[in-house]
Amino acid sequence: MKKVHGYDRENCRRVQRDGDKRERVVRLGTPALEIAKIAEEENVDLIYMPMKGENIIREMLIGSTAANVARVAKKPVLLVRYEWDRGKKAVKCYWDARRVFDRPLFALDFSKCTEKIIQTTELFKELVKEAILLHVVDYGKESEVEENIQKATQKLKEIAEKLDFPSEVVVHSGDASKEILMTAPSVGATLIVIGKRGRNILQLLMGSTAEIVIRNSVLPVLIVPCD
Question: Under the phi-then-psi rule, with left for phi > 0, alpha for psi from -120 to 50, and beta for the rest, what region is 92?
Fold first, then answer.
C-alpha cells in the first residue's frame, strides 16, 4: 500500500509494514493543499493524518490540517485521534495500529459512494478479519420504515457476498450520523469507513454525515472521496 503521511511533532505510531519504502518531501504552501497535491502526483493509495483529540469541534469548524485534508483530498484519508499526555509527556493514541483494519464498519447509503467504498476495500482486504456493513434508513414515510429496512438488509447481503472477507449485516433507522457513531463501538468496530461527497457552502456550515462522524468518533475514520 502506497501512503502519504501527514507528520507533526507528536505523531502517533505509523501504519506501516516492515520494509516499506519511505520518501521525505518538503513543500512550501498551505499544508492541506500540498498534502492533497502530493497524494495526486504520487498516485498514493491512502493518506494518513493524525488529528488532535482536544478541541476537535473547533478544529473541524475552523479547519485543522487534518480536517482540511479530508475535505479537499481526492484520495482516501485515514484520520486517527491522539492527545498529548502532559503528565507522562507522551503521545496518547486512541487506537492500536495493529488492529485498525481488524473489524471495520462500512457505512453504506447505496449511492455511488457505496461502490467507491467497496473498491477501497482492495487496499486492506487481507487485514480484515470480519466487517460490519451498516445502512441507516433515514428516508420514506413512517409506515414504510419496516419495508425499507427489509429491502436494505437484502441489498447489504448481496454486497456481503461479493466481498473477500466475512461480513455482518446491520440495518437501523434514524439519524445516519448518530446511528453510525452509536453502532460502531457497540459492535466492536476498529474503524469507521464512510464516503465523502462534494461540499457546498450550506453543507459546510450545517455539517455532512461524514464530518459529524469525524468530529465525534474516537475510532479511526477512513474517508473515501466519492466524486
Answer: beta
